[in-house]
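F.,

This is the one I mentioned.
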């Protein structure tokens, strides 16, 4: 079973109809959706047929209840701590789909020690960098990693955000990666550049519309083509959908190149959806 530890938050996705005019109004289409990198990965993996559990924290409020119900309806076994205020991310989407995110993680970053029962049966743990770059969620996540590793489970980490890693400190983050020794690391082009010469057993680098790079620890690489996508609406969650598809296929026994094909297919569905959801 795959388990994902991290954020479940509300995304407020803003599509301005024009370049925002400073100091006055700009019309926009605004949608509220389920978000959070970890929750997005869990939902995508479930859509790909993987048994998946999500562990996180939301507020003791109506928004948290609704988000939990939505993730459960997506086929995810949801294990939550409830306290405080549910987090929210404002996502401003430019024409063409590029997005800028303004996160207020709220309760998500306050994840406390994880109940061992929530890790029962887990054979693969996935962790976005957001779950390592703040406290107390960082200590709780490292504890979960140690518990799963002690039983022979595997680990993947998504670098997730240049901004989050820079705020944490690039050198401490690379040191932490080396200590945790993940089986797979996922990153965008700019995120991979932060790692310098360090590499995991398998580093999966997403280059947007260019081929996905599968970089091995010995320095060799192979490449998987990314089919062109027409009608891109929003890039929010595309990387998370790729991760969910890649991990689901890998856990099912696929080779890395075939897993990347599955990841690309799910990312394509997200690119055609407003927010991080999967279009049909």
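My design for it:
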């Amino acid at each position: 079973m795959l388990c994902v530890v991290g954020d479940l938050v509300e995304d407020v996705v803003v599509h301005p109809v024009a370049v925002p005019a400073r100091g006055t109004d700009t019309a926009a289409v605004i949608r509220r959706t389920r978000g959070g990198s970890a929750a997005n990965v869990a939902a995508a993996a479930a859509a790909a047929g993987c048994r998946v559990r999500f562990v996180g924290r939301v507020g003791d409020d109506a928004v948290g209840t609704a988000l939990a119900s939505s993730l459960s309806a997506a086929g995810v076994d949801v294990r939550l701590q409830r306290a405080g205020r549910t987090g929210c991310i404002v996502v401003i989407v430019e024409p063409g789909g590029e997005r800028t995110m303004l996160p207020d993680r709220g309760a998500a970053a306050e994840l406390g020690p994880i109940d061992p029962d929530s890790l029962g049966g887990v054979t693969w743990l996935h962790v976005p960098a957001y779950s390592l770059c703040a406290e107390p969620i960082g200590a709780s996540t490292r504890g979960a990693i140690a518990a799963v590793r002690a039983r022979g489970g595997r680990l993947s980490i998504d670098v997730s955000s240049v901004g989050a890693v820079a705020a944490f400190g690039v050198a401490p983050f690379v040191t932490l990666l080396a200590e945790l020794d993940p089986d797979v690391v996922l990153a965008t082009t700019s995120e991979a550049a932060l790692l310098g010469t360090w590499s995991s057993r398998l580093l999966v680098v997403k280059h947007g519309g260019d081929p996905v790079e599968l970089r091995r620890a010995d320095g060799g690489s192979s490449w998987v083509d990314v089919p062109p996508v027409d009608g891109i609406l929003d890039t929010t969650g595309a990387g998370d959908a790729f991760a969910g598809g890649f991990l689901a296929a890998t856990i099912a026994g696929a080779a890395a190149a075939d897993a990347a094909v599955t990841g690309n297919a799910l990312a394509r569905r997200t690119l055609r959806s407003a927010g991080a959801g999967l279009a049909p």
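The chain has a mean pLDDT of 91.

Talk soon.
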